[in-house]
Amino acid sequence: MLFRLCFSGTKKIITSTRKIGPSFFSNFYLLLYFVILFEPFVLLSCPLSMFPFTKPCRILLFLFLLHALQAIPSIIPLNGKCRDKCGSVPIKFPFGSDSGCGHPDFARYIKCSFGTLQFSTGTGIYAVSSIDYSSNTIVITDPLMSTCSSMQNSGSFTLERKSPFTLLPDNIFVLLGCSTTSPVFDRNTDFCDTGSGLNVCRGLYSCRSVEGIGLEPNGAISTCCVYDPPSALGPGYGLDLPKLQCSSYSAVNGFGGDEGDPMKWQYGISLQYNNSYYSNACKNCEDSGGFCGFSGLDESFACICQNGMNTTINCYGRGYAWSGTWRHKIQTKVWMGGFLLLWTMLFL
């Protein structure tokens, strides 16, 4: 109804604006859509006696169309960008900083969140403290894992069977505050290292922080176990503390040159990742200044350029897509076309 009354002169308007070009009419019909959508509200504020095209009605329509015009630029899609660093940790393929970056098999485990590179499993979220791309290894730290400077009750740790990560053999898992009835002390299972592992237990139990798990410093180490299961700690490995009846755990991946001083030890879980995902297509993308990523429901390969544009090959000779200069030009054209329509409505 409003469309018929307030736009009884539509034919005249269109006739007077044919010289503008086809881009004008795409904006014109989009704006008319907003007017028709808000017709009931306009009718309540603009009586029939004011039609057709009286000045108050024009002003009211102007406000509606101005609101619609402001919403137009926000519907233009923009592609995301990938970053080469998360906090202080450099990021290279197969890892990625954001959604669609890196390889999809790693994207579910590694992501950058508020400047911290995170590793996720079914048992928690862990910070990635370092990545060594030459040896294909990463080191993750559990915020609840015990160290010589801080001990508290820990959660469990599980490495999913299908993940592209495996535990390195130089990891030393130490179970702390275990019950005397814990299955790790079963003589028939031989889960604990009773050789050099005892020195690791003595070192950790000499720390004052053991008070955090209800123990006295330099106390008996009978509740400590350097976990050494007979099976390899590969994908699917799980450290279930409630099942093992232990209060906490620590992971040592190096002694810092001094095995007698647990304050100098290097704490964290070392993982090795599968680096067989690198391809010639990814190398070609990186050589052109792009980031290797993926897109679509099938998570197919995509080369993500620094301006946010996605390609299937490389970034050589690629423009600005919907970002940067072209986005600004599109917004300018939309505003010019919209204001020309409003001027025509108010003064013709």
Short description:
GO terms for molecular function: polysaccharide binding; protein serine/threonine kinase activity. The chain is of the alpha+beta class and 348 residues long.
What this model shows, in words?
With 348 residues, the protein is an alpha+beta fold. The chain folds into 3 domains: 2-77 and 326-347, no CATH class; 122-273, no CATH class; 280-318, no CATH class. Helix content is 29%, strand content 20%. Strands 3-4-5-6-14-8 form a 6-stranded antiparallel beta sheet, with no helix packed on it. A 4-stranded antiparallel beta sheet has the order 10-9-12-13. Helix 3 (22-37) packs across helix 5 (55-71) and helix 5 runs antiparallel to helix 10. It is elongated and about 80 Å long. Residues 1-44, 48-53, 67-79 and 319-332 have low confidence and may be disordered. The chain crosses the membrane at residues 28-47. It is a single-pass membrane protein. Residues 82-142 form the Wall-associated receptor kinase galacturonan-binding domain. InterPro entries: WAK_assoc_C, WAK_GUB. Its main location: membrane.
Layout of strands and helices, then pairs:
Elements: H1 2-6, H2 10-16, H3 22-37, H4 39-45, H5 55-71, E1 85-86, E2 89-90, H6 104-107, E3 110-113, E4 116-121, E5 124-132, E6 137-141, E7 157-158, E8 165-167, E9 172-176, H7 197-205, E10 225-227, E11 238-239, H8 241-244, E12 248-254, E13 266-267, E14 269-273, H9 280-287, E15 291-295, E16 300-304, E17 310-311, H10 324-347
Helix pairs in contact: 3-5, 3-10, 5-10
